[in-house]
Amino acid sequence: MLAETICSAVSAAGLGIAALTAYRKRFVAAARITAYALVPIGLVLTGVVEWLTGIVFNPTVWIGFGLLALSWALFATTRAVERRRLGTSGEPAKKKVKGGRAPEAVAPAASAPSLGAAAAGAQREPAPGRKPAAAAPADDFSDIEAILKKHGI
User: Fold this and answer.
1) Which one of 32, 46, 110, 119 has the fewest beta carbons within 10 angstroms of its own beta carbon?
2) pLDDT reading at 145 higher than 70
């Protein structure tokens, strides 16, 4: 009841200001002020104000919002824990080997010396649809050295 009265008073004041503006021969501004002044009374007549006041002043609605926020926080937390546990690839994290060290990551097309002594004899087959890797150049840092020399470093 109070909200409807306030909205009606705001609309009446706005229409009064629009009338004064029209009296001063500023008709476009008066039409715009009239449009703004009619919004609160339109909201009252459609029932939007009553609906909003029912939501704002009802404690069960706020409990419902609190439960929705708690639910969202639980979803976000469990998602973050799941991502940490699975890693970025979506597969479970690799377990440690017997020596207590985790296996080191190796590029798919790595040469035998970079794989270590255990895999030196094993040859990797290229994945379907991929070209076989070219042999590593004798000096891997020659291009970096050239760039550094070019800049005088």
Assistant:
1) 46
2) yes
DSSP state of 94: P
Contact by Cβ (8 Å): 33, 21: yes
CB of 62 within 8 A of CB of 51?
A: no
The span from the first CA to the last CA of the chain, in angstroms, equals 80
Tokens of 152: 């005088």
The DSSP code for 136 is P
Give the tokens for residue 49: 């104000």
10 Å Cβ neighbour count for 112? 14
Mean pLDDT along residues 105-127: 56
In the chain, the DSSP E strands lie at: none
- 87 touches 102 (CB < 8 A): no
Residues near 54 by Cβ (< 8 Å), separated by ≥ 6?
A: 61
Mean pLDDT (the chain, rounded): 80
